[in-house]
Protein backbone atom coordinates (compact mmCIF):
# COMPACT_ATOMS: atom_id res chain seq x y z
CA UNK A 1 0.00 0.00 0.00
CA UNK A 2 1.10 3.58 -0.53
CA UNK A 3 3.04 5.13 2.34
CA UNK A 4 2.57 8.88 2.52
CA UNK A 5 4.11 9.61 5.94
CA UNK A 6 7.87 9.84 6.31
CA UNK A 7 8.99 7.61 9.24
CA UNK A 8 9.45 9.41 12.58
CA UNK A 9 10.14 8.21 16.12
CA UNK A 10 8.11 9.18 19.19
CA UNK A 11 6.33 7.60 22.16
CA UNK A 12 4.02 5.67 19.83
CA UNK A 13 6.09 5.10 16.72
CA UNK A 14 9.47 3.44 16.26
CA UNK A 15 11.50 2.66 13.16
CA UNK A 16 14.93 1.47 12.20
CA UNK A 17 16.71 1.58 8.84
CA UNK A 18 17.30 -1.70 7.03
CA UNK A 19 19.94 -0.25 4.71
CA UNK A 20 23.23 -2.01 4.19
CA UNK A 21 24.31 -5.20 2.45
CA UNK A 22 21.54 -7.37 1.06
CA UNK A 23 21.82 -10.57 -0.95
CA UNK A 24 21.14 -10.17 -4.68
CA UNK A 25 20.57 -12.50 -7.61
CA UNK A 26 19.50 -11.91 -11.21
CA UNK A 27 16.71 -14.15 -12.54
CA UNK A 28 16.91 -13.81 -16.35
CA UNK A 29 14.66 -16.80 -16.97
CA UNK A 30 12.16 -15.83 -14.26
CA UNK A 31 12.47 -19.20 -12.53
CA UNK A 32 12.78 -17.75 -9.03
CA UNK A 33 9.11 -17.93 -8.03
CA UNK A 34 8.84 -21.64 -8.95
CA UNK A 35 12.33 -22.26 -7.65
CA UNK A 36 11.55 -21.10 -4.11
CA UNK A 37 13.80 -18.04 -4.28
CA UNK A 38 11.20 -16.28 -2.11
CA UNK A 39 12.60 -18.50 0.65
CA UNK A 40 16.27 -18.84 -0.28
CA UNK A 41 18.39 -17.34 -3.10
CA UNK A 42 20.41 -20.20 -4.64
CA UNK A 43 23.63 -18.38 -5.50
CA UNK A 44 23.46 -14.76 -4.32
CA UNK A 45 26.08 -12.00 -4.26
CA UNK A 46 26.31 -9.00 -1.91
CA UNK A 47 24.53 -5.79 -3.00
CA UNK A 48 24.37 -2.43 -1.18
CA UNK A 49 20.96 -0.91 -0.42
CA UNK A 50 20.32 1.90 -1.33
CA UNK A 51 22.19 1.29 -4.57
CA UNK A 52 21.89 0.22 -8.17
CA UNK A 53 23.76 -2.71 -9.68
CA UNK A 54 24.21 -0.94 -13.04
CA UNK A 55 26.77 1.51 -11.65
CA UNK A 56 28.73 -1.06 -9.62
CA UNK A 57 29.47 -3.77 -12.15
CA UNK A 58 32.37 -4.05 -14.61
CA UNK A 59 30.32 -6.24 -16.96
CA UNK A 60 28.14 -4.78 -19.72
CA UNK A 61 25.47 -7.51 -19.54
CA UNK A 62 24.97 -6.80 -15.83
CA UNK A 63 24.95 -3.01 -16.39
CA UNK A 64 22.14 -3.36 -18.91
CA UNK A 65 20.43 -6.27 -17.15
CA UNK A 66 16.71 -6.21 -17.89
CA UNK A 67 14.15 -8.50 -16.26
CA UNK A 68 13.53 -10.03 -12.82
CA UNK A 69 16.04 -9.81 -9.98
CA UNK A 70 15.90 -10.58 -6.28
CA UNK A 71 17.03 -8.99 -3.02
CA UNK A 72 17.04 -10.83 0.33
CA UNK A 73 17.94 -9.93 3.91
CA UNK A 74 17.54 -11.50 7.36
CA UNK A 75 16.39 -9.32 10.26
CA UNK A 76 15.49 -9.82 13.93
CA UNK A 77 12.23 -8.83 15.66
CA UNK A 78 12.39 -8.67 19.46
CA UNK A 79 9.21 -9.65 21.34
CA UNK A 80 8.99 -6.24 23.02
CA UNK A 81 7.59 -5.03 19.67
CA UNK A 82 4.67 -7.45 20.04
CA UNK A 83 1.93 -4.93 20.64
CA UNK A 84 2.90 -2.85 17.59
CA UNK A 85 1.87 -3.30 13.97
CA UNK A 86 5.03 -4.00 11.98
CA UNK A 87 5.70 -2.82 8.42
CA UNK A 88 8.57 -2.63 5.98
CA UNK A 89 8.62 0.71 4.13
CA UNK A 90 10.55 1.24 0.90
CA UNK A 91 11.37 4.80 -0.20
CA UNK A 92 11.02 3.25 -3.63
CA UNK A 93 11.74 0.06 -5.58
CA UNK A 94 12.30 0.54 -9.30
CA UNK A 95 10.22 -0.19 -11.30
CA UNK A 96 7.97 -2.78 -9.56
CA UNK A 97 8.24 -5.10 -6.56
CA UNK A 98 6.72 -8.17 -4.97
CA UNK A 99 7.62 -8.60 -1.27
CA UNK A 100 7.83 -11.84 0.72
CA UNK A 101 8.32 -12.36 4.45
CA UNK A 102 9.59 -15.82 5.45
CA UNK A 103 8.52 -16.99 2.00
CA UNK A 104 4.96 -15.60 2.17
CA UNK A 105 3.90 -12.91 -0.28
CA UNK A 106 2.90 -9.80 1.72
CA UNK A 107 2.43 -7.16 -0.96
CA UNK A 108 3.43 -5.64 -4.26
CA UNK A 109 3.85 -2.19 -5.81
CA UNK A 110 3.98 -0.70 -9.30
CA UNK A 111 6.05 2.46 -9.83
CA UNK A 112 9.72 3.02 -9.20
CA UNK A 113 9.87 6.49 -7.63
CA UNK A 114 7.35 6.56 -4.77
CA UNK A 115 7.24 4.90 -1.35
CA UNK A 116 5.13 1.93 -0.30
CA UNK A 117 4.87 -0.24 2.79
CA UNK A 118 3.87 -3.83 3.49
CA UNK A 119 2.41 -5.07 6.80
CA UNK A 120 4.46 -7.97 8.15
CA UNK A 121 3.04 -8.54 11.67
CA UNK A 122 1.19 -11.72 10.73
CA UNK A 123 4.17 -13.28 8.97
CA UNK A 124 7.10 -12.80 11.34
CA UNK A 125 8.42 -14.85 14.28
CA UNK A 126 9.42 -12.87 17.39
CA UNK A 127 12.81 -13.21 19.05
CA UNK A 128 14.35 -14.89 16.03
CA UNK A 129 15.70 -14.10 12.58
CA UNK A 130 13.16 -13.38 9.86
CA UNK A 131 13.73 -13.05 6.14
CA UNK A 132 12.56 -10.43 3.68
CA UNK A 133 12.77 -11.17 -0.03
CA UNK A 134 11.96 -8.70 -2.80
CA UNK A 135 11.33 -9.69 -6.41
CA UNK A 136 12.08 -6.63 -8.57
CA UNK A 137 11.46 -6.06 -12.27
CA UNK A 138 12.84 -3.20 -14.37
CA UNK A 139 11.28 -3.85 -17.77
CA UNK A 140 9.77 -0.93 -19.66
CA UNK A 141 6.54 -0.87 -21.64
CA UNK A 142 3.79 1.48 -22.80
CA UNK A 143 1.58 0.20 -19.96
CA UNK A 144 3.58 1.79 -17.12
CA UNK A 145 5.57 4.97 -16.52
CA UNK A 146 8.26 5.85 -17.48
CA UNK A 147 7.52 4.42 -20.93
CA UNK A 148 9.75 2.38 -23.18
CA UNK A 149 10.02 -0.99 -24.79
CA UNK A 150 12.54 -3.79 -24.96
CA UNK A 151 14.28 -5.99 -27.49
CA UNK A 152 15.79 -9.47 -27.26
CA UNK A 153 19.46 -9.51 -28.30
CA UNK A 154 20.93 -12.33 -30.38
CA UNK A 155 22.34 -13.85 -27.20
CA UNK A 156 18.82 -14.07 -25.78
CA UNK A 157 19.27 -11.22 -23.31
CA UNK A 158 16.50 -8.65 -22.91
CA UNK A 159 17.54 -5.03 -23.42
CA UNK A 160 15.39 -2.16 -22.16
CA UNK A 161 14.81 0.53 -24.78
CA UNK A 162 13.76 3.68 -22.88
CA UNK A 163 11.65 6.33 -24.60
CA UNK A 164 13.45 8.76 -22.28
CA UNK A 165 16.90 10.27 -21.99
CA UNK A 166 18.24 8.98 -18.68
CA UNK A 167 19.73 5.61 -17.77
CA UNK A 168 17.16 3.03 -16.70
CA UNK A 169 18.72 2.54 -13.25
CA UNK A 170 16.75 0.11 -11.12
CA UNK A 171 16.73 -1.74 -7.83
CA UNK A 172 16.22 -0.64 -4.22
CA UNK A 173 17.64 2.87 -4.63
CA UNK A 174 16.14 4.63 -1.58
CA UNK A 175 16.00 3.99 2.17
CA UNK A 176 14.26 0.93 3.65
CA UNK A 177 12.70 1.09 7.12
CA UNK A 178 11.26 -1.39 9.60
CA UNK A 179 8.26 0.44 11.12
CA UNK A 180 6.62 -0.34 14.48
CA UNK A 181 3.32 1.57 14.58
CA UNK A 182 0.24 1.58 16.82
CA UNK A 183 -2.60 -0.62 15.54
CA UNK A 184 -4.85 2.44 15.36
CA UNK A 185 -2.80 4.95 13.45
CA UNK A 186 -2.70 8.19 11.50
CA UNK A 187 -2.27 7.33 7.82
CA UNK A 188 -1.81 10.82 6.35
CA UNK A 189 -2.97 14.42 6.71
CA UNK A 190 -3.28 17.28 4.25
CA UNK A 191 -3.21 21.00 4.94
CA UNK A 192 -4.46 24.17 3.28
CA UNK A 193 -3.83 27.81 4.21
CA UNK A 194 -5.94 30.94 3.88
CA UNK A 195 -4.27 34.29 4.62
CA UNK A 196 -6.39 37.37 5.40
CA UNK A 197 -6.19 40.42 7.68
CA UNK A 198 -2.81 39.31 9.02
CA UNK A 199 -4.24 35.97 10.11
CA UNK A 200 -3.60 32.44 8.78
CA UNK A 201 -6.34 29.81 8.81
CA UNK A 202 -4.80 26.33 8.64
CA UNK A 203 -7.36 23.74 7.50
CA UNK A 204 -6.47 20.10 8.11
CA UNK A 205 -7.87 16.82 6.83
CA UNK A 206 -6.61 13.72 8.66
CA UNK A 207 -6.77 10.17 7.28
CA UNK A 208 -6.71 7.38 9.88
CA UNK A 209 -7.44 3.66 9.92
CA UNK A 210 -10.20 4.04 12.50
CA UNK A 211 -12.88 6.41 13.67
CA UNK A 212 -11.29 8.70 16.28
CA UNK A 213 -10.95 12.24 17.59
CA UNK A 214 -7.79 14.25 17.05
CA UNK A 215 -5.93 16.94 18.94
CA UNK A 216 -4.03 19.21 16.55
CA UNK A 217 -1.45 21.59 18.02
CA UNK A 218 0.71 24.20 16.31
CA UNK A 219 4.06 25.20 17.80
CA UNK A 220 6.12 28.26 16.95
CA UNK A 221 9.67 27.64 18.13
CA UNK A 222 8.50 25.08 20.77
CA UNK A 223 5.77 27.46 22.02
CA UNK A 224 2.16 26.30 21.55
CA UNK A 225 0.33 28.93 19.47
CA UNK A 226 -2.90 27.15 18.48
CA UNK A 227 -4.81 23.98 19.26
CA UNK A 228 -8.02 22.26 18.12
CA UNK A 229 -9.81 19.05 18.99
CA UNK A 230 -12.01 17.64 16.24
CA UNK A 231 -12.85 14.66 14.09
CA UNK A 232 -10.81 14.21 10.89
CA UNK A 233 -11.23 17.76 9.59
CA UNK A 234 -10.89 21.08 11.34
CA UNK A 235 -8.87 24.29 11.38
CA UNK A 236 -6.51 26.40 13.45
CA UNK A 237 -6.10 30.16 13.20
CA UNK A 238 -3.06 32.20 14.15
CA UNK A 239 -2.50 35.96 14.13
CA UNK A 240 0.58 37.57 12.51
CA UNK A 241 1.71 34.33 10.87
CA UNK A 242 5.43 34.11 10.10
CA UNK A 243 5.12 33.08 6.46
CA UNK A 244 7.39 30.66 4.63
CA UNK A 245 9.23 32.43 1.82
CA UNK A 246 12.36 32.06 -0.28
CA UNK A 247 14.41 34.46 1.82
CA UNK A 248 12.84 33.38 5.10
CA UNK A 249 11.77 29.69 4.89
CA UNK A 250 10.15 29.82 8.32
CA UNK A 251 8.85 26.52 9.65
CA UNK A 252 6.31 25.77 12.36
CA UNK A 253 5.75 22.37 13.96
CA UNK A 254 2.34 20.74 13.76
CA UNK A 255 1.44 17.81 16.03
CA UNK A 256 -1.49 15.50 15.31
CA UNK A 257 -2.58 13.24 18.20
CA UNK A 258 -5.14 10.49 17.76
CA UNK A 259 -7.35 10.27 20.85
CA UNK A 260 -9.29 7.27 22.16
CA UNK A 261 -11.27 7.90 25.36
CA UNK A 262 -9.29 11.15 25.59
CA UNK A 263 -6.03 9.17 25.68
CA UNK A 264 -3.42 9.70 22.97
CA UNK A 265 -2.82 6.47 21.05
CA UNK A 266 -0.82 7.78 18.09
CA UNK A 267 1.05 10.97 17.23
CA UNK A 268 2.60 12.38 14.08
CA UNK A 269 4.53 15.66 14.00
CA UNK A 270 5.87 17.49 10.98
CA UNK A 271 7.45 20.82 10.10
CA UNK A 272 5.15 23.01 7.99
CA UNK A 273 5.55 26.32 6.18
CA UNK A 274 2.60 28.67 5.97
CA UNK A 275 2.45 30.15 2.50
CA UNK A 276 0.11 30.48 -0.46
CA UNK A 277 0.84 29.83 -4.11
CA UNK A 278 -1.48 30.83 -6.93
CA UNK A 279 -1.62 31.99 -10.51
CA UNK A 280 -3.15 35.39 -11.19
CA UNK A 281 -3.24 36.25 -14.89
CA UNK A 282 0.26 35.72 -16.27
CA UNK A 283 1.99 35.71 -12.86
CA UNK A 284 2.89 33.07 -10.26
CA UNK A 285 2.25 34.54 -6.80
CA UNK A 286 3.96 33.28 -3.63
CA UNK A 287 2.20 34.91 -0.66
CA UNK A 288 0.60 37.27 -3.19
CA UNK A 289 3.97 38.46 -4.55
CA UNK A 290 5.00 37.59 -8.15
CA UNK A 291 8.03 35.29 -8.37
CA UNK A 292 10.45 34.58 -11.20
CA UNK A 293 11.74 30.99 -11.22
CA UNK A 294 15.52 30.63 -11.70
CA UNK A 295 17.06 27.21 -11.66
CA UNK A 296 17.16 23.80 -13.18
CA UNK A 297 15.77 20.64 -14.48
CA UNK A 298 17.65 18.09 -12.41
CA UNK A 299 18.14 14.33 -12.08
CA UNK A 300 18.86 12.02 -9.20
CA UNK A 301 22.16 10.91 -10.72
CA UNK A 302 25.76 10.56 -9.58
CA UNK A 303 28.84 8.47 -10.23
CA UNK A 304 28.72 5.02 -8.65
CA UNK A 305 25.40 5.85 -6.94
CA UNK A 306 23.34 5.99 -10.14
CA UNK A 307 19.97 7.20 -8.77
CA UNK A 308 20.57 5.91 -5.24
CA UNK A 309 19.70 8.41 -2.53
CA UNK A 310 22.66 9.99 -0.75
CA UNK A 311 22.35 12.98 1.55
CA UNK A 312 25.87 14.19 0.74
CA UNK A 313 24.84 14.62 -2.90
CA UNK A 314 21.60 16.33 -1.82
CA UNK A 315 23.52 18.76 0.39
CA UNK A 316 26.17 19.42 -2.29
CA UNK A 317 23.47 20.10 -4.91
CA UNK A 318 21.67 22.57 -2.65
CA UNK A 319 24.96 24.30 -1.81
CA UNK A 320 25.69 24.63 -5.56
CA UNK A 321 22.16 25.91 -6.22
CA UNK A 322 22.48 28.46 -3.41
CA UNK A 323 25.91 29.51 -4.73
CA UNK A 324 24.58 30.10 -8.26
CA UNK A 325 21.49 32.02 -7.10
CA UNK A 326 18.84 29.50 -8.11
CA UNK A 327 15.46 29.41 -6.35
CA UNK A 328 13.69 26.51 -8.07
CA UNK A 329 14.07 23.10 -9.70
CA UNK A 330 11.81 20.58 -11.38
CA UNK A 331 12.06 16.97 -10.17
CA UNK A 332 12.54 15.85 -13.78
CA UNK A 333 11.33 13.24 -14.59
CA UNK A 334 10.00 11.50 -11.47
CA UNK A 335 9.31 12.32 -7.80
CA UNK A 336 12.66 12.47 -5.96
CA UNK A 337 13.48 10.92 -2.58
CA UNK A 338 11.68 12.65 0.31
CA UNK A 339 14.92 14.00 1.72
CA UNK A 340 15.19 16.41 -1.28
CA UNK A 341 11.91 18.08 -0.30
CA UNK A 342 12.86 18.28 3.38
CA UNK A 343 16.01 20.22 2.45
CA UNK A 344 14.03 22.49 0.08
CA UNK A 345 11.59 23.34 2.91
CA UNK A 346 14.53 24.27 5.17
CA UNK A 347 16.73 26.00 2.57
CA UNK A 348 13.90 27.93 0.87
CA UNK A 349 13.72 26.41 -2.62
CA UNK A 350 10.68 25.96 -4.87
CA UNK A 351 9.96 22.57 -6.44
CA UNK A 352 7.90 21.63 -9.46
CA UNK A 353 7.06 18.03 -8.54
CA UNK A 354 6.88 15.74 -11.59
CA UNK A 355 5.23 12.33 -11.90
CA UNK A 356 7.27 9.81 -14.00
CA UNK A 357 5.11 10.38 -17.11
CA UNK A 358 8.07 10.63 -19.45
CA UNK A 359 8.43 8.84 -22.77
CA UNK A 360 4.74 9.04 -23.72
CA UNK A 361 5.92 9.91 -27.19
CA UNK A 362 7.64 7.37 -29.40
CA UNK A 363 8.98 10.05 -31.73
CA UNK A 364 11.00 11.62 -28.90
CA UNK A 365 13.34 8.62 -29.05
CA UNK A 366 14.68 9.87 -32.35
CA UNK A 367 16.15 13.23 -31.43
CA UNK A 368 17.03 13.93 -35.05
CA UNK A 369 13.37 13.60 -35.82
CA UNK A 370 11.75 15.35 -32.92
CA UNK A 371 10.94 18.56 -34.74
CA UNK A 372 9.02 16.70 -37.41
CA UNK A 373 7.09 15.26 -34.50
CA UNK A 374 6.22 12.23 -36.57
CA UNK A 375 3.34 11.53 -34.22
CA UNK A 376 2.64 7.84 -34.01
CA UNK A 377 -0.68 8.37 -32.22
CA UNK A 378 0.76 7.11 -28.97
CA UNK A 379 -2.54 7.67 -27.16
CA UNK A 380 -4.55 5.65 -29.64
CA UNK A 381 -2.90 2.35 -28.68
CA UNK A 382 -4.88 -0.34 -26.88
CA UNK A 383 -2.61 -0.23 -23.81
CA UNK A 384 -3.59 3.37 -23.01
CA UNK A 385 -6.37 2.45 -20.50
CA UNK A 386 -3.81 0.47 -18.45
CA UNK A 387 -1.30 3.32 -18.75
CA UNK A 388 -3.88 5.85 -17.54
CA UNK A 389 -4.66 3.74 -14.44
CA UNK A 390 -0.97 3.58 -13.44
CA UNK A 391 -0.46 7.25 -14.30
CA UNK A 392 -3.35 8.24 -12.00
CA UNK A 393 -2.15 5.91 -9.22
CA UNK A 394 1.28 7.55 -9.26
CA UNK A 395 -0.15 11.07 -9.37
CA UNK A 396 -2.18 10.21 -6.25
CA UNK A 397 0.83 8.72 -4.47
CA UNK A 398 2.98 11.75 -5.38
CA UNK A 399 0.44 14.32 -4.14
CA UNK A 400 -0.42 12.27 -1.01
CA UNK A 401 3.30 12.09 -0.17
CA UNK A 402 4.36 15.68 -1.00
CA UNK A 403 1.23 17.75 -0.38
CA UNK A 404 2.43 19.36 2.85
CA UNK A 405 5.84 20.59 1.63
CA UNK A 406 5.83 24.40 1.37
CA UNK A 407 8.63 24.04 -1.20
CA UNK A 408 6.32 22.20 -3.64
CA UNK A 409 4.57 24.90 -5.71
CA UNK A 410 3.21 22.94 -8.69
CA UNK A 411 2.48 19.47 -10.04
CA UNK A 412 3.88 18.47 -13.42
CA UNK A 413 1.73 15.68 -14.82
CA UNK A 414 3.75 15.02 -17.98
CA UNK A 415 7.11 15.56 -19.65
CA UNK A 416 7.14 15.96 -23.45
CA UNK A 417 4.31 13.63 -24.41
CA UNK A 418 2.83 13.50 -27.87
CA UNK A 419 0.58 16.51 -27.52
CA UNK A 420 -0.74 17.36 -30.97
CA UNK A 421 -3.48 14.75 -31.37
CA UNK A 422 -7.09 14.77 -30.24
CA UNK A 423 -6.49 11.51 -28.35
CA UNK A 424 -3.62 13.10 -26.42
CA UNK A 425 -5.97 15.88 -25.34
CA UNK A 426 -8.69 13.36 -24.40
CA UNK A 427 -6.17 11.37 -22.32
CA UNK A 428 -4.79 14.33 -20.41
CA UNK A 429 -8.18 15.98 -19.91
CA UNK A 430 -9.04 12.99 -17.69
CA UNK A 431 -5.61 13.00 -16.05
CA UNK A 432 -5.89 16.68 -15.06
CA UNK A 433 -9.47 16.25 -13.85
CA UNK A 434 -8.31 13.33 -11.66
CA UNK A 435 -5.31 15.22 -10.26
CA UNK A 436 -7.21 18.44 -9.48
CA UNK A 437 -9.21 16.63 -6.78
CA UNK A 438 -6.13 15.64 -4.76
CA UNK A 439 -4.50 18.84 -3.51
CA UNK A 440 -6.54 20.97 -1.08
CA UNK A 441 -4.02 23.79 -1.68
CA UNK A 442 -4.96 23.69 -5.38
CA UNK A 443 -1.39 24.28 -6.47
CA UNK A 444 -1.01 24.91 -10.21
CA UNK A 445 -1.03 21.83 -12.48
CA UNK A 446 1.11 21.73 -15.59
CA UNK A 447 3.33 19.60 -17.84
CA UNK A 448 6.18 20.28 -20.23
CA UNK A 449 5.76 20.65 -24.00
CA UNK A 450 8.34 19.14 -26.32
CA UNK A 451 10.03 20.84 -29.30
CA UNK A 452 7.50 20.76 -32.10
CA UNK A 453 4.51 21.23 -29.78
CA UNK A 454 4.13 24.89 -30.65
CA UNK A 455 1.20 27.29 -30.48
CA UNK A 456 -0.31 26.18 -33.76
CA UNK A 457 -0.35 22.42 -33.06
CA UNK A 458 -0.24 21.80 -29.30
CA UNK A 459 -3.48 20.60 -27.73
CA UNK A 460 -2.47 20.31 -24.07
CA UNK A 461 -1.71 23.90 -23.05
CA UNK A 462 -5.40 24.71 -22.31
CA UNK A 463 -5.22 22.13 -19.50
CA UNK A 464 -2.15 23.74 -17.90
CA UNK A 465 -2.26 26.55 -15.31
CA UNK A 466 1.10 27.73 -16.59
CA UNK A 467 2.85 26.74 -19.79
CA UNK A 468 6.19 24.90 -19.69
CA UNK A 469 8.36 24.90 -22.80
CA UNK A 470 11.30 22.59 -23.46
CA UNK A 471 13.09 24.27 -26.37
CA UNK A 472 16.38 23.54 -28.12
CA UNK A 473 16.63 26.01 -31.00
CA UNK A 474 20.40 26.36 -31.37
CA UNK A 475 21.03 22.74 -30.40
CA UNK A 476 18.78 20.02 -31.85
CA UNK A 477 17.61 22.57 -34.40
CA UNK A 478 19.74 25.26 -36.08
CA UNK A 479 22.89 24.58 -34.11
CA UNK A 480 26.41 25.91 -34.70
CA UNK A 481 26.62 28.70 -37.29
CA UNK A 482 22.85 28.35 -37.83
CA UNK A 483 22.28 29.73 -34.33
CA UNK A 484 21.61 33.02 -36.09
CA UNK A 485 18.45 31.37 -37.47
CA UNK A 486 17.71 29.77 -34.10
CA UNK A 487 17.10 33.15 -32.48
CA UNK A 488 14.42 34.00 -35.05
CA UNK A 489 12.84 30.54 -34.70
CA UNK A 490 12.57 31.09 -30.95
CA UNK A 491 11.12 34.58 -31.42
CA UNK A 492 8.65 33.36 -34.06
CA UNK A 493 7.37 30.66 -31.72
CA UNK A 494 7.06 33.06 -28.78
CA UNK A 495 5.23 35.52 -31.05
CA UNK A 496 2.87 32.67 -31.86
CA UNK A 497 2.21 32.01 -28.18
CA UNK A 498 1.83 35.74 -27.52
CA UNK A 499 -0.82 35.98 -30.25
CA UNK A 500 -2.89 33.33 -28.47
CA UNK A 501 -3.29 35.82 -25.59
CA UNK A 502 -3.45 32.97 -23.06
CA UNK A 503 -2.83 35.35 -20.16
CA UNK A 504 -0.89 32.55 -18.40
CA UNK A 505 2.72 32.48 -17.14
CA UNK A 506 5.27 30.74 -19.36
CA UNK A 507 8.24 28.90 -17.87
CA UNK A 508 11.16 27.59 -19.89
CA UNK A 509 11.58 24.22 -18.18
CA UNK A 510 14.32 23.02 -20.51
CA UNK A 511 16.85 24.77 -22.74
CA UNK A 512 20.51 23.82 -23.05
CA UNK A 513 23.44 22.60 -25.08
CA UNK A 514 25.71 19.59 -24.59
CA UNK A 515 29.08 20.91 -23.43
CA UNK A 516 32.36 19.17 -22.62
CA UNK A 517 34.03 20.83 -19.65
CA UNK A 518 37.34 20.17 -21.41
CA UNK A 519 36.38 21.96 -24.63
CA UNK A 520 37.32 25.55 -25.47
CA UNK A 521 36.93 26.77 -29.05
CA UNK A 522 37.62 30.14 -30.77
CA UNK A 523 35.45 30.87 -32.64
CA UNK A 524 33.05 28.86 -30.53
CA UNK A 525 31.73 25.51 -31.75
CA UNK A 526 28.98 23.19 -30.51
CA UNK A 527 30.12 21.12 -27.47
CA UNK A 528 32.50 23.93 -26.39
CA UNK A 529 32.02 26.02 -23.26
CA UNK A 530 32.03 29.14 -25.39
CA UNK A 531 29.07 27.79 -27.40
CA UNK A 532 27.09 27.00 -24.22
CA UNK A 533 27.58 30.64 -23.21
CA UNK A 534 26.53 31.93 -26.62
CA UNK A 535 23.49 29.62 -26.63
CA UNK A 536 22.23 30.89 -23.26
CA UNK A 537 22.98 34.53 -24.05
CA UNK A 538 20.80 34.17 -27.14
CA UNK A 539 17.87 32.89 -25.02
CA UNK A 540 18.29 35.60 -22.39
CA UNK A 541 18.33 38.29 -25.10
CA UNK A 542 15.05 36.89 -26.46
CA UNK A 543 13.41 36.52 -23.02
CA UNK A 544 13.68 40.27 -22.48
CA UNK A 545 11.04 40.81 -25.19
CA UNK A 546 8.37 38.55 -23.68
CA UNK A 547 7.04 39.73 -20.29
CA UNK A 548 4.92 36.60 -19.88
CA UNK A 549 8.07 34.50 -19.31
CA UNK A 550 8.22 33.97 -15.57
CA UNK A 551 10.89 31.37 -15.26
CA UNK A 552 14.06 29.91 -16.68
CA UNK A 553 14.92 26.36 -15.56
CA UNK A 554 17.98 25.38 -17.60
CA UNK A 555 18.69 21.82 -18.73
CA UNK A 556 20.39 20.37 -16.81
CA UNK A 557 21.84 21.09 -13.35
CA UNK A 558 24.57 18.50 -13.99
CA UNK A 559 25.78 16.06 -16.66
CA UNK A 560 23.97 12.76 -16.20
CA UNK A 561 24.02 9.15 -17.41
CA UNK A 562 21.92 8.01 -20.34
CA UNK A 563 21.82 4.94 -22.56
CA UNK A 564 24.64 4.92 -25.08
CA UNK A 565 24.06 6.69 -28.38
CA UNK A 566 25.69 8.60 -31.19
CA UNK A 567 24.77 11.86 -29.49
CA UNK A 568 25.75 10.93 -25.96
CA UNK A 569 29.38 11.24 -24.83
CA UNK A 570 29.32 9.27 -21.58
CA UNK A 571 25.79 10.59 -21.09
CA UNK A 572 23.93 13.87 -21.49
CA UNK A 573 26.45 16.70 -21.18
CA UNK A 574 24.07 19.66 -20.98
CA UNK A 575 25.05 20.15 -17.35
CA UNK A 576 25.84 23.55 -15.88
CA UNK A 577 27.92 21.48 -13.51
CA UNK A 578 29.83 18.31 -14.38
CA UNK A 579 28.49 14.99 -13.06
CA UNK A 580 30.83 15.32 -10.09
CA UNK A 581 29.36 18.76 -9.36
CA UNK A 582 32.19 21.03 -10.54
CA UNK A 583 31.21 24.24 -12.42
CA UNK A 584 31.54 24.69 -16.17
CA UNK A 585 32.19 28.27 -17.39
CA UNK A 586 28.45 28.82 -17.86
CA UNK A 587 27.90 28.44 -14.10
CA UNK A 588 29.65 31.79 -13.54
CA UNK A 589 27.53 33.45 -16.26
CA UNK A 590 24.32 32.17 -14.66
CA UNK A 591 25.51 33.16 -11.16
CA UNK A 592 26.07 36.72 -12.34
CA UNK A 593 22.65 36.80 -14.07
CA UNK A 594 20.60 35.14 -11.34
CA UNK A 595 22.05 37.16 -8.50
CA UNK A 596 20.96 40.33 -10.31
CA UNK A 597 17.55 38.94 -11.32
CA UNK A 598 15.08 39.26 -8.48
C1 LIG B 1 14.20 17.58 -27.49
C2 LIG B 1 14.16 16.78 -26.25
C3 LIG B 1 15.16 17.23 -25.23
C4 LIG B 1 15.15 16.31 -24.02
N1 LIG B 1 14.04 16.60 -23.14
C5 LIG B 1 13.86 15.64 -22.03
C6 LIG B 1 15.17 15.44 -21.26
O1 LIG B 1 15.04 14.35 -20.39
C7 LIG B 1 16.35 15.19 -22.21
O2 LIG B 1 17.54 15.02 -21.48
C8 LIG B 1 16.44 16.36 -23.19
C9 LIG B 1 17.73 16.25 -24.04
O3 LIG B 1 17.73 15.57 -25.05
O4 LIG B 1 18.72 16.82 -23.59
Can you give keywords for this protein?
598 residues, alpha/beta, Jelly Rolls, Immunoglobulin-like, 3 domains, eight-stranded parallel beta barrel, 30 strands, globular, Ig-like_fold
List the helices and strands and how they pair.
Elements: E1 14-17, E2 20-27, E3 45-49, H1 53-56, H2 60-63, E4 68-77, E5 85-90, E6 96-101, E7 104-110, E8 116-119, E9 128-137, E10 148-152, E11 158-162, E12 176-181, E13 186-196, E14 199-208, E15 213-220, E16 223-230, E17 233-239, E18 252-260, E19 263-272, E20 277-280, E21 283-286, E22 289-290, E23 293-297, H3 311-324, E24 328-330, H4 338-347, E25 350-354, H5 384-402, E26 408-415, H6 422-435, E27 445-449, E28 467-470, H7 483-499, E29 506-510, H8 529-543, E30 549-555, H9 585-596
Parallel strand pairs: 23-24, 23-30, 24-25, 25-26, 26-27, 27-28, 28-29, 29-30
Antiparallel strand pairs: 1-12, 2-3, 2-4, 4-9, 5-8, 5-12, 6-7, 6-9, 10-11, 13-14, 14-17, 15-16, 15-18, 18-19, 20-21, 21-22
The chain binds the ligand CCC[C@@H]1NC[C@@H](O)[C@H](O)[C@H]1C(=O)O.
3D architecture notes:
Residues 189-275 form the Glycoside hydrolase family 2 immunoglobulin-like beta-sandwich domain. It is an enzyme of class 3 (hydrolase). Residues 277-597 form the Glycoside hydrolase family 2 catalytic domain. Belongs to the glycosyl hydrolase 2 family. The chain is of the alpha/beta class and 598 residues long. The protein has helices spanning 53-56, 60-63, 311-324, 338-347, 384-402, 422-435, 483-499, 529-543, 585-596; strands spanning 14-17, 20-27, 45-49, 68-77, 85-90, 96-101, 104-110, 116-119, 128-137, 148-152, 158-162, 176-181, 186-196, 199-208, 213-220, 223-230, 233-239, 252-260, 263-272, 277-280, 283-286, 289-290, 293-297, 328-330, 350-354, 408-415, 445-449, 467-470, 506-510, 549-555. The chain has 3 domains: 14-181, Galactose-binding domain-like (Jelly Rolls), CATH 2.60.120; 186-275, Immunoglobulin-like; 278-596, Glycosidases (TIM Barrel). An 8-stranded parallel barrel has the order 23-24-25-26-27-28-29-30. A 6-stranded antiparallel β-sheet has the order 3-2-4-9-6-7, with no helix packed on it. It is globular. 46% of the residues are buried. Bound molecules: the ligand CCC[C@@H]1NC[C@@H](O)[C@H](O)[C@H]1C(=O)O. Ligand CKX is lined by residues 165, 333, 367, 370, 416, 450-451, 470, 472, 476, 510, 555, 572, 574.
